[in-house]
Amino acid sequence: MPFGLCVLSLPSYAQGPGAQTTQIPASGPKTPTDSSPIAAAQQNLYGASGQNGAQVTQDSFKGGIVEGKATGTVVDLSLDEAVQRGLRQNLGIILQSSAQRNANGQRLEQLQALLPTVNGTASLQVQQVNLAAYGLKFPGLNPIIGPFQVVDFRAYLTQNLVNVSALQNYIASKHNFESAKLTAADARDLVVLTVGNAYLLCIADSSRIDAVNAELATSKVSLDQAVAAHDAGTSPKLDVLRAQVDYQNEQQSLISAKNQFEKDKLALARAIGLPLDQVFRLTDTSPYAAFDQLDPQVAFEQALRVRKDLQASAEQVKAASAEKTSAWAYQLPVVSFSGDFGDLGTTPGHSHSSYTATGQISAPILQIAKTKGQEEVASAQYEQARAKLSDQVQQVNADVRDSLLDIQAAARLVEATHSNVELANEALNEAQQRFRAGVSDTLPVSQAQSQTEQANNQYISALYQHNIAKLSLARALGVTQTNYKDYLGGK
């Protein structure tokens, strides 16, 4: 059912349950502390990041590489534009792409152990030998031989014909590379999650500013009434002072709300690589929209099929299995071939071809401790990878169910807090009328104004929680990048 806020404290984008906003923690009066629902929602935002690249952390997604320069004009920025910029310029994406290239380089290095290696040399050697220095003396023969020269053009070939350990190392590197590619794909979901949250926070700040402006206007009306009543001799000075305190408190709240808005815009600009001195305007709102409830088990099964971080972890298990086999195969014989072919002579015009060919079988004979140790290390790593994957599957299950519960709870909060806003506005209007009629002083008005502000804060928080819960569900299902508009816009 659609909701509407009374004009007195209506956030600009929250014209109905559709308005999504975030209560930004501010330093001014009557603002939520770090234990507020919004702060908790932000802390749980990255519940299961699925990061496989150790060098890429959650904080990496808060930064970005600046693209372009400030235009000197106000730029309109939609949610979709912010997301697309983030997918290009976010630091987490760039670092994960580098990690993917690094894994590919390691794969190619392991592949070389299975491929022929050919090296070429060209040499010119000039030599003079003193046979006497070697104890060789022949009657009638000059012990000094030379100088003479040898020209040699030669190619050398080496090839492992049978090397099970090297083959398994290559297979492991292939799985590691696939894992890196999947992790890079998963990083795109995390970018959308980060940018989407930053955008929603800015929307909430804007709503908070509109709400405080409305509250400030109401406080000004109450102050003017108190001053007029005092001048008429029907109200004591205390009523004027109390109204002045309420009005100045709202002014402080407005300063804090505007400051937080600008700070969160900077955080959004950083995440998408926008110059920090670029002035921009948010063009999208995220209205409240009821969410069609999903079956938790069906949603979990969908996540198992789609989540890239789970697929990346599965590749890590395969890589660890190959490394375990490689450690065992290290004790097996290695069959290799080496040879060279070249042209040898005193000059290039006085030379002849020459070659050597060698087949070799080598096997470790006595290195029991080393082989056993390698097997133990590889086996432990394999068991760790399997255990992490199993736990990650359960974490995804928990994330899906947590998000669904959060959506249900937030939807009920939106209804309850919206009702509270209407009741608080009605109470404030009643208190103002009683004061104008001389039935009461400004204390009930002041109390009603505080209750109205608190109700607005709670409503903004509930709207934010509902939208961020839907965004978190999209992340839990692994469809943040492709379906974030559907989730933020309602289903």
Largest beta-sheet characterization: 4 strands, antiparallel
- Write out the strand line-up for the largest beta sheet, numbering strands in chain order: 2-3-5-6
State mean pLDDT (0 to 100 scale): 84
> Quick one: overall form?
elongated
In percent terms, what proportion of residues is strand? Answer: 5-15%
Strand/helix succession:
HEHHEEHHEHHEEHHH
Radius of gyration: 37 Å
CATH architectural grouping of the largest domain? Up-down Bundle
**Name of the CATH homologous superfamily of the largest domain:** Outer membrane efflux proteins (OEP)
Continuous helix count: 10
Overall tally of domains: 2
List the helices and strands and how they pair.
Layout: H1 37-43, E1 75-77, H2 79-89, H3 91-112, E2 117-130, E3 144-162, H4 164-231, H5 237-272, E4 280-282, H6 296-306, H7 308-329, E5 334-347, E6 350-362, H8 368-436, H9 443-477, H10 480-489
Parallel strand pairs: 1-4
Antiparallel strand pairs: 2-3, 3-5, 5-6
Helix pairs in contact: 1-9, 2-4, 3-4, 4-5, 4-7, 4-9, 6-8, 7-8, 8-9, 9-10
Textual characterization of the structure:
The protein is an alpha+beta fold and 491 residues long. It folds into two domains: 7-114 and 164-331 and 367-489, Up-down Bundle (Outer membrane efflux proteins (OEP)), CATH 1.20.1600.10; 117-162 and 333-366, Single Sheet (Outer membrane efflux proteins (OEP)), CATH 2.20.200. Helix content is 59%, strand content 13%. The chain has helices at residues 37-43, 79-89, 91-112, 164-231, 237-272, 296-306, 308-329, 368-436, 443-477, 480-489, and strands spanning 75-77, 117-130, 144-162, 280-282, 334-347, 350-362. Strands 2-3-5-6 form a four-stranded antiparallel sheet, with no helix packed on it. A hairpin with a 2-residue loop joins strand 5 (334-347) and strand 6. Helix 1 packs parallel to helix 9 (443-477), helix 2 runs antiparallel to helix 4 and helix 4 (164-231) runs antiparallel to helix 5. It is elongated, with a radius of gyration of 37 Å.
